[in-house]
Amino acid sequence: MSLPARVSNPMAPQTFAEAERFAKMLANTDLVPAAYRGKPEAILIAMQMGYEVGLNPMQAIQNIAVIGGRPAIWGDAMLALVLSHPACEYVRDGVEGDGDARHGWCEAKRRGSPAIRRTFSVADAKRAGLWGKSGPWQQYPDRMLQMRARGFALRDAFPDALRGLISQEEAQDIPPGPVIDVAAEPASAPPAPAKGVGPEADTRWPILAPDGTLHQIAPHRWYDAILRALIRLTTAEALHQWHDAMAPHLEVICAMGGYKEVERAREIIRERIRDLEQD
Questions:
Q1: 173, 174, 178, 181: CA torsion to nearest 10
Q2: Is 123 exposed, middle or buried (0-12, 13-18, 19+ CB in 10 A)?
Q3: Distance between CA atoms of 279 and 277, rounded to whole angstroms?
Q4: What is the pLDDT of residue 11?
Q5: Which of 17-26, 32-41, 92-101, 177-186 is the most confident on average?
Q6: Is 97 helix (H, G, I), strand (E, B) or coil?
Q7: 176 near 100, Cβ under 8 Å?
Q8: Confidence at residue 81, expressed as pLDDT on a 0 to 100 scale
Q9: Which of 20-34, 136-150, 240-254 has the highest mean pLDDT?
Q10: Among the listed residues 133, 253, 167, the one whose alpha carbon sits nearest the alpha carbon of residue 205
Q11: C-alpha to C-alpha distances, 148 to 50, 69, 74, 89, 125, nearest whole angstrom
Q12: Cα–Cα distance between 145 and 143 in angstroms, integer?
């Protein structure tokens, strides 16, 4: 687990093994949000995502939540990451209008590119079944309109800064689905390669559980499942065997459009093997 240039905290874990130990230690303390207590795998996922966008471990744990198996970030932390980006010229947002036309808006300007403006209205919220929903949509409707518009604008203008993170406010509104882990029911065979199928398509990617059973998992949860598998593989020999068995499935995922995710996984697998061989 290597750190990006923006993370320079000398106390931050520098390897997967250090991050794993740190996550297990934090999971048993009151220093983490209640949703992370007793869940070192979720802490590890949040820390890894934090490294990739430039957050130190404790910042990541406080600002990133794993919702439905997918990391998400609070809207204010999302704004902070974008404002610190060297190409950010400005970000402006607010709420205006009346009735169903009342809307949150956000405009983000990247140097050398036209400003991107996105809106989210009361009418949009009603169509999505959000307006009047119990919780923040009842308590702070203007804030939720603003956060939804902000998430859309910042992701479109600064995808390199956010690395696929969605706002936590948006993630909380996604209907819950089954939580799929590498311990779920196994599939009989990996899917056939299909050109042009990206990570967000309605498909499944193969992954082997540590016990060797094959599963199909939603693309946005696949990398998180890789991390959970690495935690459970505790010897270099076992990890080598698992990695060799995963090789043909990684090629399938590359053919399905998941090349970047596979390279990301291969890097952390190699690092985990080095850590185990040194122990």
A1: -100
A2: middle
A3: 6
A4: 59
A5: 92-101
A6: coil
A7: no
A8: 92
A9: 136-150
A10: 253
A11: 21, 20, 11, 21, 10
A12: 5
Amino acid at 76: D
Where does residue 163 fall: left (phi above 0), alpha (psi -120 to 50 degrees), or beta otherwise? left
Residue 205 is encoded by which pair of tokens?
Answer: 């990617």
Which amino acid is present at 268?
A: I
* 266 vs 78: CA distance, rounded Å: 27
| 116 DSSP β-pair partners | 108
Distance (Å, rounded) from C-alpha 104 to C-alpha 122? Answer: 9
What is the model's pTM? 0.61
Query: Distance (Å, rounded) from C-alpha 270 to C-alpha 1?
Result: 10
Sheet holding 166-167, edge to edge: 64-67, 70-73, 166-167
Q: How many CB atoms lie within 10 A of CB 166?
A: 20
CA dihedral 144, 36, 211, 262 (to 10 degrees): 50
Q: Transcribe 173-215 into DSSP letters.
A: TSPP-----TTSPPPSSPPPP-TT--TTSS--EEEE-TTS-EE
What is the Cα–Cα distance from 251 to 155, expressed in whole angstroms? 29
Q: How does residue 100 score in pLDDT terms, banded at 50, 70 and 90?
A: very high
Bridge partners, 91 (sequence order): 108
Banded pLDDT at 164 (limits 50, 70, 90): confident
Q: What is the spatial distance between Cα 258 and Cα 248, in angstroms, rounded to a whole number?
A: 14
Tokens (6 digits) for 253 = 């995922």
Q: Is 74 helix (H, G, I), strand (E, B) or coil?
A: coil
